[in-house]
Amino acid sequence: MRMYDLILKKKQGGELTREEIDWMIQGYTKGDIPDYQMSAMTMAICFNGMNDRETGDLTLSMRDSGDTVDLSSIDGVKVDKHSTGGVGDKTSIALLPLVSSLGVKLAKMSGRGLGHTGGTIDKLESIPGFKTEISMDAFISQVNNIGMAIMGQTADLAPADKKLYALRDVTATVDQMSLIASSIMSKKLAAGADAIVLDVKCGSGAFMKELDDAKALADAMVRIGRHAGKNCRAVITNMDEPLGRAVGNAIEVREAIDTLKGKGPEDFTKLVLTLGSRMVVCAGLAKDTAEAEEELKKAIDDGSALEQLKRFITAQGGDASCVDDPEILKTAEGVLELKAQADGYVQHIDCDEVGMCSLVLGGGREKKSDIIDPEVGIYLYKKVGDSISKDETMAVLYYNDKEKGLAALERLKAAYHTGTERISPRELIIGEVD
Ligand code: URA
Asked: Are residues 278 and 396 in the same domain?
């Protein structure tokens, strides 16, 4: 086979066979196919697209380009969850113990990533003693012992995607639906679960800003999951304003704990119950999502979800007393308040800008080597649709470096849009693919 011929075929609108795709992906991963030919191919894909079969085959080839996790020694249906990412997204920290308290088996690998705040792994590491760098054997035996584990991604999962994503990033070829869907799903499939529930975020603080794009991505990922023989479903959720009220690291863990105590913000609680009920159904432990949601609510009310969170923290070396005493999850001592200038309503919060405030404070990473400050963050007392009175506190900022705190406050001020007319917030659950 010659890469030149495959590029020409795709440029002319042709359909690549499974063998051609696999030859190209394995060759590219090994370094046999140069970046300049692969970038011509990704550009041809941008113009002429890939059908479902090609997209599915591309995903399987990328999945098979490195390690795949074998979860077969864990009994029961193993369920995974993935979010396309947003601001204030602490979902896994509340969702996984909750779902696992009903008996769903969860073996989750998480990356650190770059962004406004840390990833799930960084957030968990704000719990004193908590370890995410555990061996694969310890990971699997923890799932067998207590039903769940979360580890930092150490295995060489889907290296083809890593290389291809870096190339797409510098050749203006990121925003093609088949390439995005296959990129995300190749890593999920390599992580070995039987069923996957996807949270596709949509809105100003999400990768997918427009509803049509979010729907197309959700559809494409669910079709890939099925192509790979997995039980896969997706929920499309609002990311026009931050999720919940806390944005940061330790502060987000506190909010996740509160949610398992039944005292979480309404939107975040709803998201956790919505995704959780889909996971329980995927595991075959409830006949429908309504029954699953009732069981999940019971697990919050009777404290079993909170007990499972403590078991999980203890199993990974963390100090579980933070669940009863959240002060252990330290927030920075420097505090700045954003006050309302006049009576009225919050009409819009620029979600990305709130994320940027967290980054400015030191709560996220711009480059891989950056060190996260777990204590800094933002708490939004007022969200879209809330009424405000002059001089009332709308949000609070926790900083360790005054200069950064003041810079973040300026951005937070600009992120809040207020006025005299009440605007209803967008529904949290926008759509579903199942
Ligand atoms: N996230 C990914 O993992 N891959 C993409 O292509 C886009 C977002």
From this structure: no
* Domain total of the chain: 3
- Picking from 323, 351, 379, the residue at the C-terminal end of a domain is 323
Distance 180 CA to ligand 1 centre (A): 5
Residue nearest atom 7 in ligand 1 by C-alpha distance: 180
Range of 44's domain?
3-49
Q: CA angle, corner 336, sides to 332 and 338, nearest 5?
A: 135
pLDDT, tens digit, 9 for 90 and up, residues 154-172: 779 999 999 999 999 999 9
Ligand 1, atom nearest to 179 Cα = 6
Mark whether 160 and 218 lie in a shared domain: yes
CATH number at residue 380: 3.90.1170.30
Please tell me the pTM assigned to this model: 0.96
- What distance in Å separates the CA atoms of residue 384 and residue 90, rounded to the nearest whole number? 20
Give the model's pLDDT for residue 321.
Answer: 98
Q: Spell out the residues 6+ positions from residue 10 whose beta carbon is closer than 8 angstroms to its own.
A: 16, 41, 44, 45, 48
For the question of residue 183 being annotated catalytic, the response is yes
Q: Verify whether ligand 1 is closer than 6 Å to residue 183 (CB atom).
A: yes
Verify whether residue 82 is a known catalytic residue. yes
